[in-house]
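Project outcomes to date are best conveyed with an example. Our students and postdoctoral researchers have been running inverse folding experiments weekly, and each run begins with a structure described purely in tokens. The record below, which covers 291 residues, was selected by the lab manager from last quarter's runs and is presented without edits.
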């Protein structure tokens, strides 16, 4: 299951419902140590109790609101202080908002939660307490090619809930592909495409679209359990060392290049812009390409 006989430690966002919750149970059954980062810690503790009953040997819950960078920084510091080595960091959390909403820190909500928070969390953890086999970075996304508008990342001038959502998730894909190139740490970064399934996110999208056919289709979608098993397989995989960063895996383990994988200039421009936006120099172990 892992590159060593040690029990792997998995850090996961979005673990309180849908795909994340089902994946926690799948990992618990396989005996992984789990760290659940959640805005709602009460809900996360209930998931932790259930996961412990499936066999998870150790489960930590840490408060983290990915939409607030101050919360992400506190969570990263607490995680580094409380948890030993980290074998995998899994970004499952995502939100969709039918109308434009802005966080207390001034960022568009979907951009903050779906992209900026995961970007910052990953970079704060890289180089800290990684396992002997490095870090597996897995972002839940899909075959998306909605290029982020670098001149309007916060969608101030143009907001369409589905276009903005897809752009923020594409941004996460681009970050995942770029991270190993920017970072000196032993990092294996891939994307998981779970396919359509019945989750709170899909229900929100169907409701926002106000289309009866879409709502009915949402009710007929499969539960996330099957996709969760595929994600758990990927999280615990020992076969990612020679996989190209940004490779997209589906629930059956089939691999393909993600869209925009070859657009390195876009990936690097987004990386640089994000660094400026977050006003951070956390990448002390991650020199820019060519440095």
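After processing, the design step wrote out the following sequence:
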């Amino acid at each position: 299951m892992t590159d060593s006989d040690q029990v792997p430690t998995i850090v996961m966002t979005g673990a309180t419902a849908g795909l994340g919750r089902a994946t926690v149970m799948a990992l618990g059954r396989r005996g992984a140590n789990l760290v659940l980062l959640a805005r709602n810690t009460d809900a996360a503790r209930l998931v932790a109790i259930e996961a412990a009953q499936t066999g998870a040997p150790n489960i930590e819950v840490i408060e983290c609101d990915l939409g607030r960078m101050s919360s992400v920084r506190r969570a990263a510091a607490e995680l580094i202080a409380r948890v030993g080595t980290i074998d995998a960091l899994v970004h499952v959390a995502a939100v969709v908002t039918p109308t434009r909403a802005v966080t207390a820190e001034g960022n568009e909500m979907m951009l903050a939660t779906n992209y900026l928070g995961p970007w910052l969390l990953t970079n704060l953890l890289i180089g800290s307490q990684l396992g002997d086999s490095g870090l597996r970075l897995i972002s839940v996304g899909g075959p998306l090619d909605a290029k982020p508008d670098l001149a309007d990342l916060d969608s101030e001038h143009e907001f369409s809930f589905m276009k903005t959502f897809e752009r923020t998730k594409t941004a996460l894909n681009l970050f995942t592909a770029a991270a190993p190139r920017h970072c000196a740490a032993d990092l294996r970064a891939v994307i998981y495409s779970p396919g359509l399934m019945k989750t709170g996110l899909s229900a929100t999208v169907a409701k926002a679209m106000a289309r009866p056919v879409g709502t009915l289709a949402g009710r007929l979608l499969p539960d996330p359990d099957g996709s969760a098993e595929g994600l758990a397989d990927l999280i615990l995989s020992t076969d990612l060392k020679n996989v190209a960063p940004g490779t997209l895996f589906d629930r059956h383990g089939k691999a393909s290049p993600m869209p925009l994988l070859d657009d390195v200039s876009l990936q690097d421009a987004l990386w640089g812009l994000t660094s400026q936006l977050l006003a951070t120099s956390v990448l002390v172990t991650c020199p820019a390409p060519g440095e």
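Residues 9-197+226-275 form a domain with the Rossmann fold fold (CATH 3.40.50.720). The chain has a mean pLDDT of 86. The training component of this project remains on track.
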